[in-house]
Design goal:
Layout (H helix, E strand, L loop, with lengths): L1 H6 L3 H12 L3 E8 L2 E8 L2 E10 L2 E6 L2 H6 L4 H28 L1
Antiparallel strand pairs: 1-2, 2-3, 3-4
Helix pairs in contact: 2-4
Bound molecules: zinc ion.
Zinc ion binds next to helix 3.
Length: about 100
């Protein structure tokens, strides 16, 4: 479902979030529930709090950066947080599958 949110991030910001992945930005999740995720995106001396919340069929995302606050757009930090959560979920599924194989 986070992929739908990522689809709404414009190309430039999506690209900068991908570049953040390459540059080892950190995603530190503080709270994760079925419909809610909250944490920090960190790189260099910067830190931004990101919240992504599902309301019905749509996601509402917030970030403390100027891009999100002043322009009201889905910023690169929100994109990075969503990518990170998708990556963590995929890794968890993959690890689970490997454990099942080992358990046979
Ligand atoms: Zn931001």
């Amino acid at each position: 479902m986070l992929r739908r949110l990522l689809g709404k991030v414009d190309d430039g910001r999506f690209g900068r979030a991908l570049a953040g992945m390459q540059a080892d930005w950190q995603w530190q999740c503080k709270e994760r529930r079925a419909e809610y995720v909250e944490g920090f995106v960190r790189y260099g001396s910067k830190q931004y709090m990101v919240v992504i919340e599902r309301r019905g069929k749509r996601y509402v995302a917030r970030c403390g950066c100027d891009d999100a606050v002043k322009r009201g757009v889905l910023c690169k930090h929100v994109a990075f947080a969503a990518m990170s959560e998708l990556g963590l979920a995929a890794a968890a599924r993959s690890a689970h599958r490997q454990l099942q194989v080992l358990g046979r």
